[in-house]
């Protein structure tokens, strides 16, 4: 049974950049545990931001990644998603991909802003109804 882990972004991470840096820390952990992941971004701009941050989010950290195919961490943007993945990380998507790519693990984030929190609640309900085992974790700063 696949697992969906939602990370609550703390209110102390007020700017989108700080929130994305927090997401990079989770991506680094996913890479260490799962060995690979596909990062789904809503648009090219977010994909480029995540690409840049994975190089600089933490001094001394290295997460091998590429936009598209070819590395253990793959960044996808603009609605072209893989059909399956060992681990999926949703970075800024308002809605789940349709269909949700087959995966062992799905990582999503619960943002601070109330409007986007409601969208995260909808993604949570949809994944639970699809048979995912649900987890919620605080993202510690």
UniProtKB/TrEMBL annotation:
The organism of origin for this protein: Acidithiobacillus ferrooxidans
One GO MF term attached to the UniProt entry: DNA binding
SUPFAM superfamilies, per the entry: DNA polymerase III chi subunit
A Pfam family assignment: DNA_pol3_chi
GO biological-process terms attached to the record: DNA replication; positive regulation of DNA-templated DNA replication initiation
Name of this protein: DNA polymerase III subunit chi
């Amino acid at each position: 049974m696949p697992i969906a882990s939602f990370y609550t972004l703390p209110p102390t991470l007020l700017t989108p950049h700080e929130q994305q840096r927090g997401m990079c820390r989770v991506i680094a952990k996913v890479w260490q545990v799962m060995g690979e992941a596909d990062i789904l971004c809503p648009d090219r701009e977010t994909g480029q931001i995540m690409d840049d941050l994975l190089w600089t989010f933490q001094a001394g950290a290295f997460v091998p990644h590429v936009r598209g195919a070819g590395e253990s961490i793959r960044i996808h943007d603009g609605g072209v998603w893989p059909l399956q993945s060992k681990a999926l990380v949703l970075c800024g998507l308002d809605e789940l991909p349709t269909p949700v790519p087959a995966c062992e693990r799905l990582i999503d984030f619960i943002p601070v802003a109330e409007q986007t929190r409601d969208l995260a609640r909808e993604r949570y309900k949809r994944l639970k109804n699809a048979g995912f085992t649900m987890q919620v974790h605080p993202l510690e700063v």
